[in-house]
Amino acid sequence: MKKLILLTIFIFSACMDKSTIPPDATKKPYEMTEHGHTRVDDYYWMRLTDEQKSEEQKDDHAQEVVDYITAENDYTQSQLSHTEKFQDDLFNEIVGRIKKDDESVPYFDNGYYYYTRYEKSKEYAIRCRKKGSLDGEEEILLDENVLAKGHDYFAIGGMSVSPDNHWLAYGVDTVSRRRYTVHFKNLDTGEVLSQTIPNTTGGVAWANDNKTVFYTSKNEVTLLSEKIWRHKMGSDSANDELVFHEKDESYYNGVYRSKSGEYIIIYNSSTLVSDYHILNANYPDGDFKNFSPRGTEHEYSIDHYQDKFYIITNWEAKNNRLMETSVNATDMSNWKEVLAHRDDVHLLGMEIFKDHLVLNERKDGLRGLRVMHQSSGKDEYIDFGEATYTAGISVNEEFNTNILRYSYTSMVTPRSTYDYNMDTGELTLLKQTEVVGGYDQEAYHSERLYAIAKDGEKVPISLVYRKDVKTDDPQNLLLYAYGSYGSTRDPYFSTTRLSLLDRGFIYAIAHVRGSQIYGRKSYDDGKMLNKKNTFTDFIAAGEYLVKKGMTTPDHLFAEGGSAGGLLIGAVVNMAPELWKGAIAAVPFVDVVTTMLDASIPLTSNEWDEWGNPAEKEYYEYMLSYSPYDQLIDREYPNLLVTSGFFDSQVQYWEPLKYVAKLRDHWQGENKLYLHMNMDAGHGGKSGRFRRYREVALEFAFMFDLAGVKE
User: Fold this and answer.
1) I want to staple 449 with a disulfide (CB 3.0 to 4.6 A). Which of 89, 90, 438, 461 is the partner?
2) Backbone angles phi and psi of 561, in degrees to 5
3) Residue 331, C-beta contacts closer than 8 angstroms, at least 6 positions apart
4) Distance between the two ends of the chain, CA-based, in angstroms?
5) Model confidence pLDDT, tens digit, residues 553-602
6) Among the options 275, 499, 682, 686, which is catalytic?
7) CA geometry: angle at 627 spanning 626 and 633, to 5°?
8) How far apart are CA 139 and CA 224, in angstroms?
9) Exposure of 630 by Cβ count < 10 A (0-12 exposed, 13-18 middle, 19+ buried)?
10) What is the pLDDT, as a whole number, of residue 607?
């Protein structure tokens, strides 16, 4: 109680002029010794179990942690209270650009057109279909607005319709821990069965008998997807049959139905290894067969086509190659090459049609589409007409068609959906994201620049700005990056971003290593014992933009989320003087502690990404960059840290402890804020509009520092 009184007095003190909340001196430090090295964590006490976070089982310790979080949130709100009207204006501006009565492009599947629509002022989607024709009668599959009533958080996962079109399976998460309960709805009567399947990943794979489904359950402690089950419609899930159990905790697991509808496929995937088991969907009570024996550092994906499987594999092909094999001889020894490996092209994915094969490839850092004609052997790339862009395969449920549906966007082009006739080359724009209030693409300019990393490698930078507010003088600039798991942040359009550009900000994406911007090598050069390249690449990008005269350290802001939040924590330690301010969203900042604790969700899955600190070499390397462990007394840039109390990916206590320890070491007059959403997880609030309250807060934080008042 004494602590809370001190916090309250401190937070609301009129004479307060420093971003400091008193540390809690009453908690015993937690000592951790590994490889003869001892670390002391003064804030380990902030960890709570899922049970302690629930209102029903909240104890005194849990209440103290919640009170601490409340004090931090109150402090942030108090310190930024002068921006509240601006935040409201920004929120209304951002939401005002969103088409309220919007509708997705319908896609055809098994006799029905499926689409999602939204109604004005409603937060959630309405899932619909029409039989045979777009002029047919609308059938509402799910109205999420009705299902979400009474819940602070609501998300649907894994909607799938049975092959006979009579049943809908869908997952529901009302906590934001990504643990879904599967429900079954009779689409003829509207009845929802009382029998549900709890604690799943959300999706199911339907067998062709229309009554058997396969699903994935989660470990209730680690949240790992570890078991695959066979379930009969209408039965008690307690009686379900276990068909696969992955005991290696470094693997993600799941089950899906092939596009052809002929196979149920179990996948097992670690950072370095892929594995599959297949079952004929016409014989759901049969046994799954291993596709090919699990290898070492072999990643691949499979797609069924008539009497064979296509395989994208990195076997003796770092950037992947395309192979095929008979459905009756799936062992890797029988695979035959269709498309060879290329050093300068990264094969990312494919879509199979009756007469065509479409490949999604990355060349020169850009995602493009390649169409291969099965009968004639013709091979062509689609020309998009821009120098920098992102193109990807969209929803293509039909097999017997010559129409490819793809998506396209760039830093200045709103997301667009096209139908492309693969035989004639005819292109039809089906929809482009509407910017309510108007958007003049010609008013904005995008380009790609290249910084040089400390080891001489190129770091591409995609940036965009509004032409009529661009000057020759340095401007405010927000630099963003992610840089982990091989995930590449391609150039894309954002209506939200317009609120920055229209107020004179330049927005830039640094394509750092740890992504796959130049293929697998970029990823390998930014993981494990090369992880620091991710951080130094980002710093090099910032320094390049300063040297080029586009900005200065007094106008340069940095942002990243999740593993990108780790990047932010690292670069504000390594180069604090380079940034005016930084936003670390749901940041993974206590690297060593987390990676030593296999009871935490996702830890064991990711030793091949970060290394296992149980090995001394990795322990020492992680320790050398872990943001939480590298904090020292110094001036840090202005910093906003955001988090979600129910985050299943980065546990809430990481950003909470990080901010608490930062306060111990904070020097100077810059501001340090924590904003923790108490009813959300890794992705923030659910719904169409509510999430933008936090975006408005982030923008207001930067605008306030930049002197932008409206």
Assistant:
1) 461
2) -130, 145
3) 292, 293, 325
4) 40
5) 999 999 999 999 999 999 999 999 999 999 999 999 999 999 998 777 66
6) 682
7) 125
8) 36
9) middle
10) 87
Is 152 catalytic? The answer is no
User: How far apart are alpha carbons 276 and 284 in whole angstroms?
Assistant: 17
Two structure tokens written together for 535: 């951080």
CA distances from 279 to 171, 531, 595 (A): 23, 39, 36
Q: Specify the pairing of strand 241-245 against strand 225-232.
A: antiparallel
Residue-by-residue DSSP string for 522-581:
HHHTTSGGGTHHHHHHHHHHHHHHHHTTS--TTTEEEEEETHHHHHHHHHHHH-GGG-SE
**Residue 175 has which token pair?**
């906590």
Is the torsion defined by CA of 486, 492, 496, 501 positive or negative?
positive
Query: Which residue among 446, 562, 648, 686 is the active-site one?
Result: 562
Known catalytic residue: 682?
Answer: yes
Where do the DSSP E strands lie in 353-472? 356-363, 366-373, 379-381, 390-393, 403-409, 416-421, 427-432, 444-452, 458-466
**What is the greatest pairwise CA distance in the chain?**
80
Average pLDDT of the chain? 90
**Is 647 considered catalytic here?**
yes
Q: How far apart, in whole angstroms, are the C-alpha atoms of residue 582 and residue 465?
A: 20
Domain borders along the chain are 441-689+700-706
Of 656, 490, 663, the closest CA to residue 66 belongs to: 656
675-703: per-residue pLDDT in tens? 998 775 555 555 567 789 999 999 999 99
Q: Which long-range contacts (CB under 8 A, 24 or more apart) does 101-107 make?
A: 102/434, 104/431, 105/405, 105/417, 105/430, 105/431, 106/130, 106/134, 107/395, 107/396, 107/397, 107/405
d(CA 218, CA 646): 16
Burial class (CB in 10 A: 0-12, 13-18, 19+), 293: exposed
CATH classification code of 441-689+700-706: 3.40.50.1820
Structure tokens at 14: 């009129």
* Cα 82 to Cα 90: distance, rounded to the nearest angstrom: 14
- Is there a contact between 136 and 143 (Cβ–Cβ < 8 Å)? no
- Among residues 604, 647, 686, 704, the one annotated as catalytic is 647
CB 215 within 8 A of CB 231: yes
Q: Which two tokens stand for residue 526?
A: 């930014």
pTM of the model: 0.84
CB 112 within 8 A of CB 129: yes
H or E segment to which residue 107 belongs? strand 107-109
